[in-house]
Amino acid sequence: MTEARRKTVEQAVQASETSGLRRTMGPFHLTMLGVGSTVGAGIYVMAGTAAANYAGPAVILSFVIAGLACLFTAFSYAELASSIPVSGSAYTYAYVSLGERAAWWVGWLLLLEYGVSCAGVASGFSGYAVSFLHDLGIFVPNPLHAPVVTASIAPNGTALSAGWRIDLPATASVLIVTAMLMRGVTESITINTAIVLLKTMTLLAFVSVGLTAIHPDYWHPFFPPSEGAFRYGFTGVFRAASVVFFAYVGFEAVSTASTEARSPRRDIPIGIIGSLLICTLIYLCVALVLTGVVPWRQLDVSDPLALAADAIGSPSLAVLVKLAGVIGLCSVLFGLLYGQSRIFFTMAQDGLLPPIFNRLHPRFHTPVAGSLLLGLLVALAAATLPIDIISDLVSIGTAAAFGVVNLTVIRDRSARPEAERPYRVPLGALRIGRLWLGLTPLLGILFAGVMMLPLLVELISGILSGNWLPAILLGLYFASGAVIYRFYGLSHSELARNRQI
Questions:
Q1: What is the mean pLDDT of the chain?
Q2: Number of structural domains, the chain?
Q3: What is the CATH number of the domain that holds 86?
Q4: Domain annotation covers residue 8
Q5: What are 374-393's pLDDT values in tens digits?
Q6: Interatomic CA distance for residues 275 and 272, integer angstroms
Q7: In which element (H, E) is residue 298 found?
Q8: In angstroms, what is the C-alpha Rg of the chain?
Q9: How far apart are CA 349 and CA 89, in angstroms?
């Protein structure tokens, strides 16, 4: 039975050690990778969308709820990274704990999560780039910075329209970052660290100046009256949490860097938890200022922080925020494309994808073929899909992957109770017979379900109202995954070959 195929931890570690990738990253670089991958379109774009369409000023609570959902999963990621110090993130953890078929679907979900996240970030980049160029007197025609399909909020759900247009800035940003990754990680991670520091300092400046320009009236009512369909009220806060959940995609990219970390058992947990805590603090402060300087109904724009900076009345701050948005979103693209390419590399190394995708360039020591293919696919998505559809697809895939990560911790603790674990999740003392049940991973599974539920309800209501695009995209993606695994991965995996031998 295919379900019985599981890697041992020793097999996973051996494959990681012989990958050919260089160990160049310490805890600081890993934390910067996490922050750089996380602080992006979620706060630069989706915070405004969530406030304007779902939660109003209570979007601050939405960030808290989404942050808690990620924190429990971050603890689980940190334990798995310390006990199974290999690349591949949740994919490899599932391979060791749950078996090959589950690992395939986790990997396929992660490729969706990272790839579509990149497209969403590129869409945010486009909005800030066009706004910044406008300030310089350069006007980009709308057909050249809008995706083929656009979305808008309608009384019966999300309305879609298509036209002859293409988002060129978004496409170009993905291709440029892809070229950087193909060139090499050592040089790119240094550039990424510098960009992350610039982005973080700019957001701190935005918060510091914005606190002096807050209008407390904009926070009243804190919970706008419910209009039904997850719009405002208490349910709107949870719907907004599932939207801003998109803002937290990226911190797990740290777990894909185990093969390139100097001391993965120690450094990866530091990078995962440290970057998540830093990002959550930044998000809460920015959301507080954002809803305090601009009426929340006006925030449904592609560049809400730029709008807020203009409202503050500081021209120099507005220019700085827009420039940091343009440059900073590139660091998010770098982190997400990096994580996606390393998962792709690991899956190919296991034989589930063709071997061309785990071959390293002789000079750059990077998986060039996989990075190029993924970059082209992400560029295509960025050119054609609206960020509203993209963010919901990402959040569904992310919540499902987070649930599996927490389940993997339970399975790993139960199956390997004596294994070395330099880091252990808090609140994990409960055991029923041979089954270990930690409160932290159980809460992680619960919160993943809470994040996914409003999205699934809206997906179903969209189908009933005639909006089939999200369901079609998800269906096609999962169908292609089933076909690839059935006709290639099942017979070509390394475990299948070892059994035949």
A1: 80
A2: 1
A3: 1.20.1740.10
A4: no
A5: 889 888 888 877 666 666 67
A6: 6
A7: none
A8: 22
A9: 14
